[in-house]
Every structure is written in C-alpha cells, then in structure tokens.
Amino acid sequence: MDTQSYLPVQPGVGMEENFLSLDDILLSHDRLPIRTECSFPRLGFLEKSSDTQDIAEGTKMELPLWLSKGLYERKRRVVSVELPKVYRQGWRTVFNADPNVVDLHKMGPYYYSLGSQMLHFDSPENPDIAQTLLQTFIGRFRRTMDSSQNAYNEDTSALVERLDCLEKGLFRSGQSGLNGFQSWEKGQATQLTASSLVLNYRKRKITDVQP
Amino acid sequence: MSDADALFDDGSDANQDDSQEDVMTPAELIAKLEEAWLNEKFSPELLENKSEVVECVMEQLTHMEANLQRVKKGDAKASVHRMEIDRIRFVLSSYLRSRLQKIEKFFPHVLEREKSRGEGDPSLLSPEEFAFAKEYYANTETYLKAVALKRMPPNLQTVDMLKAVPEPCLDSFVFLRVKERQENILVEPETDDQREYVVDLEEGSQHLMRYRTIAPLVSSGAVQLI
Amino acid sequence: MDPSEVEFLAEKETVKIIPNFSLDKIYLIGGDLGPFNPGLPVDVPVWLALNLKQRQKCRIVPPEWMDVEKLEDMRELERKEDTFTPVPSPYYMELTKLLLNHASDNIPKADEIRTLVKDIWDTRIAKLRLSADSFISQQEAHAKLDNLTLMEINTIRAFLLDSLNCMYKLRSNLQPGSSKGQFTDY
C-alpha cells in the first residue's frame, strides 16, 4: 500500500478494458478454453500437445483472452469460446445461494472482470451471468466493507485472501479511509516522516548509483 | 494605534477599482475559492477554471505580503496576518494542484473538450493549464514511443490516446450540500424494476447521488460538493 | 480528502476566547477580528484560538455543547434512534480533538468528554455502515444524508464511491447493446 504508483489506472471492470491498467493487462492474459471452428494452417507449433503442422478444425485448446477476443467473430465462426466453469450454471447456483462462501481469489482472481468480458461472446446464458456477477458483488459487499473497516494495524492477509482483485482494491480504499482517520485521531498526521523513498535511498552506496 | 493598523485596514481596496457589476468583499472572495476547491476535489471531471477568483486572491495576497514587508519584526498583528496568508495559500495551491492532477489523469479528453468548444463558450482551462495539458500530451506520446512503440511493427506504432486513457466517469456518485433550493430533480432508476422519480433539494440538506444529475447545479453554484 | 484537510476546515469555526492582552481590531482578508481586551470574551477562529493558547495569550471557552451532561443526552439519543440525530456542530469530532489536545486545562472533565464524543462517533459510524450496506443492496439512486458530518462522510467516501462505481459497471453489463460485440481497437 505504501508503494502506490502515481495516478494508477483503475481496471475497466464492465465490458471495457482500460488500456493502461496493469490489472486489465494481466486479465487479458487469462486463458480461456476454446474450440477451433476451422483449421489453422501451419500454426501447429502453437499447440504443444500434438506434432501436426496445422491446427485441425475442432481442436480444443486454451487461448488468452486477448487472442480469443481478436479471433472471435459472430458472423464467420473461427473459434467458439467455452465458458469457464465458475460462470456456468452449477457455480451460478452456488453463488446465488451464498456468495460469501466462495474463495473468489482461487476461482478468479479476476472473477468480475473476466465474467464481464465473457459477455462479449454470444451465449444464451449471458443475461444470467451478468445478473450473477452483480448479485455476487452485492452479496459480498457487507463482508468486504466490514473487514476493511475493522482491521486496523492487523495482519490483513487472512481477510483479503479470499477476495477477488476488484474487491481487494475496494478493501484497500476502505483501509486507507480508516487508517487516515485513525492516524489523524492519534495525531500522527501532524508529525512529519521521511519518505520511504529517501530512507531506501540512503541505504544505497554511492558506487551503486554511479554507472 | 500600532503602525501596522494603517497598513491593514484598507484590506478591501484591491477590489475597489473593479467596476464590474458583482463587487465581492475579500471575505466572499475567499469563500468562493474554498467552494471551488472542494468542488474540484470531489467532482469526477475537471470543472471550468476560476482564474478570475485565483487572480483576485493572488492580488490580495501580494498586497498583504507587501504590507507585511514594511512592518517591524515581532508585531503581534503581523503574525496573525501571516497565519491567515498561509492558510489561504494552502487552499489556493491545493485547488490548483487538484486541477493539475485531473488534467494529468484525463489529458486527451480535456484537450478534446477544449478543441470542440464553441467560439463564445468559457474555456475549461486557464492559459497556463492549457499549455501544461498540451505539453503533458506531447511528453506522454514521446515517452510511449521511445520505450515501446518504436519497437512495434509499423502498423501498430500509434496509440489513440482518447481511447487508451479512461474518460471521467460522470455516473460516479457524489456527496453534496444544497445552497439554493431546487425542485423536481429527476432521479433515474438504477434497476429495471425501479421507476424514475423526482426529489426536491431543500436548502441546507445533504445528498448522495449521481454527479451527472446535478452537474449543472455544481457549475451554477446551487449545490456544493462535500 | 485527507482528514487533516477536514480538520483545516474545522479550524475556521469560531470559538470564544478570553485574552490576557490588549490589541486593536485586526483586519484580516477573511473578515475583522477583535478588538482584544484582557478578561473580555471575544470570538475568533479556532486556528487563531489555538495559536494564542499555545503562546499562553488566552483561555479558551469551550463551546456550549462540550459538556458532559449534554453529551450524555446526545449519546442516549444517538443510540436510541435509528437515524442520524442532529449534531451539535458540523465539526464536533475535529473540534473535540483540537480543543482537548491543546486546551484541556480550560475544559472541565476533558477525559469524560473525549470518551463521550468517541462513543457518539462510534454509534454514528456503525449506522453509516448499515446505511451504506442497504444503499448498495437496495441499489438506491439517491440518499438523503442530513446531519452527517464531513469527517464521517470522509471515512467511508473512497470505499463507498468506488464500490458504487464497480456496481454501476457490473449493472451496465445487464443492458445488452452499445459496446457489445465491438471490440475496442486501440
């Protein structure tokens, strides 16, 4: 938390990705299960499990989100994208029953963002997926809020361990609000402290800095 | 009467030659600055610049500081004046800084809005801020080119900044206090099974609602963001 | 907003002091102050009161509400009501901290007051969380927040607004249309 970059770009969440957001860049590398709907000549080297020269039609493989989005077209079917398990009917039932029991970090960690991205690919299940994403967020909100507002100066790793990346970001906003208030209350805000940058800098020897 | 008195009791003369219709007292001017400061801090988008207010406040400060130069050390009043100056200066720089931060965050959109602005429309940016935004844009572009883009295939060497940099989200919620009573403010529904409805904003009441709904009231000064 | 900035705003509130010096009227940019006469109460902004107090130039008269009995009543009411009760000052928390830290010798039963104000604060913050949760779960579009103070809003601001933003975007997923199927091409 103390090494926050200057003006970080937030993830886009919904249907959009933010080009310069680190979270969204990582998200775009999440792998999706796909099935090829035509053959890809001379691209067999991309498919590690076989030695053939081409990728045959009907091959099942995994592609990163950015590539799947690039190849997917509704009119000309090149690839079809399968829904990752966590967004399918079975898991949706679990989420609708009690969203708080799920370890979204393990299942994600970009559960909401990837789920929103999945809506790019046509599927009759899309409305249900979108609804589940929203309800899951609402259902888990209280827990995210309470843990972020009650954990001052404690080891927070256990609290955030089961949160999705988005929720972690919110947890951090909540913590910074709480910490800001508490250090004001204790009068720490009026004490000047050396920037961590300066402290670290001192530890380096001059020879390290010189080329 | 201490010698400091003669210097200070004309605190309002900087405004007197201003023959414009709205003559403001220095106290009102400071209140305006603080309003602009809080609004700018809390609004999701960059607001119209208040360079008139900024200039007048600067004038007041320089005037006061010039007077203080002539006061002998240890004058009891001078120290109070200095404290006040420091406080005003703090608000002023925090205001300007929060504008710069927004310009850095939304620079392509800020410049685009400035470009599409009609002839007589007031400018979003002060001349200095405009220069800053243009320079920031150019520097960002140069930097991206130097570290990455020039190593890309030729057809991928441009980045559309307007698409790459997120726009301000006008649908963000804001906290506000009402300064002038407003009737029939339309609240749009959040979900399909809700209906839109209207609320009256009573003077002095506080609300949490979407910025988009009340953005015009922020620029007219009818509500204050908090 | 940083809590110290909220405190900065609180320092503009006026408070009564009893000076032990004399000085003519001071014509500040923000308004006139004084004159100051030894033993005669006069209204000044808190920032000046604290400065004079630190230099032992005055005694601070605590605001009327900074009184154990009054605060006990307020605490009772705050605990009884489900909604936010009117606060004695829009900056009650900040003023309590500022005055108690710098002028506790001028305020009778300072420690009790500190505890009472903290109790009131805690009760209100618990309510605030409750209302934030229901605002989210009901997916409300508008809330009236009279009687909430800036410092209270400030402790939850970033969290609540960020959450509402996320929720807004997740909800816009439900509307099939506009951006769908068109991949943004940078």
TrEMBL record, chain A:
One of its GO terms (biological process) is mitotic DNA replication initiation. Pfam families: PSF3_N, Sld5. It comes from the Eukaryota. Component of the GINS complex. Keywords: DNA replication, Nucleus. The GINS complex plays an essential role in the initiation of DNA replication. Residues 93-185 form the GINS subunit domain. The keyword DNA repair does not apply. GO terms for cellular component: GINS complex. Residues 21-72 form the DNA replication complex GINS protein PSF3 N-terminal domain. This is DNA replication complex GINS protein PSF3. It is found in: Nucleus. Belongs to the GINS3/PSF3 family.
TrEMBL record, chain B:
The keyword Lipid biosynthesis does not apply. It comes from the Eukaryota. One of its GO terms (biological process) is DNA-templated DNA replication. InterPro entries: GINS_A, GINS_bundle-like_dom_sf, GINS_Sld5, SLD5_C, Sld5_GINS_A. Residues 1-21 have a biased composition (Acidic residues). The keyword Oxidoreductase does not apply. Residues 1-22 are annotated as: Disordered. Residues 168-226 form the DNA replication complex GINS protein SLD5 C-terminal domain. Its main location: nucleus. It is found in: Chromosome; Nucleus. Keywords: Chromosome, DNA replication, Nucleus. Residues 78-146 form the GINS subunit domain. Required for initiation of chromosomal DNA replication. Core component of CDC45-MCM-GINS (CMG) helicase, the molecular machine that unwinds template DNA during replication, and around which the replisome is built. Belongs to the GINS4/SLD5 family. This is DNA replication complex GINS protein SLD5.
From TrEMBL, chain C:
GO terms for biological process: DNA replication; double-strand break repair via break-induced replication. Keywords: DNA replication, Nucleus. Pfam families: PSF2_N, Sld5. Residues 65-167 form the GINS subunit domain. Residues 2-61 form the DNA replication complex GINS protein PSF2 N-terminal domain. GO terms for cellular component: CMG complex; GINS complex. It is found in: Nucleus. Belongs to the GINS2/PSF2 family. Component of the GINS complex. PANTHER family: DNA REPLICATION COMPLEX GINS PROTEIN PSF2 (PTHR12772). Required for correct functioning of the GINS complex, a complex that plays an essential role in the initiation of DNA replication, and progression of DNA replication forks. GINS complex is a core component of CDC45-MCM-GINS (CMG) helicase, the molecular machine that unwinds template DNA during replication, and around which the replisome is built. This is DNA replication complex GINS protein PSF2. The lineage of its organism: Eukaryota, Metazoa, Chordata, Craniata, Vertebrata.
